[in-house]
Amino acid sequence: MTATSTSPAPLDILQHALKTIAGVDEEHFAMSYDFWQHKSFSKNEYYNEYKHVCKYLGFILDGVFRTYYIDEKGEEKNVFFFSQHQVVVSFQSFIQQAPCNYYTQSMTESQVLYIHINQLQELYKKSHQWERLGRLIAEMAFSISMRRTESFLFMSPEERYLQLVTDHPDIFNSIPLYQISSYLGIQGPSLSRIRKRISGR
């Protein structure tokens, strides 16, 4: 990753998000000022690649990312989306510092603030608030993975679609519908019927 200096405005957005997520106050957030870097991602540029260890925790200022894998037929299958003002990271790879089984890719022109895991661990040692953030990241990874798995066990495609609208309301204007179909585990015509049915209510 090529780093450039960051302006106060993005850091203000990040500080607000971390305060909401983990209660990181202004004093403790200031400990991280020198660690955050800014990066512009081109469309289709990778945040983390298959079998690479994810060493960065990112915060999306603008844009959309996806995590996907390639199945035995060579088809790309979307697993997660990450959108504006959300964390972007290959959770398991980052937490365990092990090679990743997925690709994480920018789907649009995107802007991200990111921090290296070594710097984050340094903050964990210095601050209980940052340590709490670390625990919450691990809990978030488990929760997101479980909710994703259970959505295929207990929810209809329409319910999964409505959940996606709630979680990522802006991505429908940013990415192709076939990418959304892949995420929902359905074909394009089925997605069209769901959207038509919902719009007619």
Can you offer a commentary on this structure?
It comes from Lacibacter luteus. It holds the Pfam family cNMP_binding. By secondary structure, this protein is α+β, with helices and mostly antiparallel strands. The protein folds into two domains: 8-146, Jelly Rolls; 155-201. The protein has eight helices and eight strands; from the N terminus they run ααββββββαββααααα. The protein has helices at 8-22, 26-29, 91-96, 117-126, 128-154, 157-167, 177-184, 188-199; strands at 37-41, 46-48, 56-62, 65-70, 76-82, 87-88, 103-106, 110-116. The strands form two sheets. A four-stranded antiparallel sheet has the order 1-8-3-6. A four-stranded antiparallel sheet has the order 2-7-4-5. Helix 4 (117-126) crosses helix 5. The mean pLDDT is 93.
Spatially, the strands of the biggest sheet line up as 1-8-3-6
Fraction in beta strands: 15-25%
Give the biggest beta sheet: 4 strands, antiparallel
The CATH homologous superfamily of the largest domain is called Jelly Rolls
End-to-end CA span: 46 Å
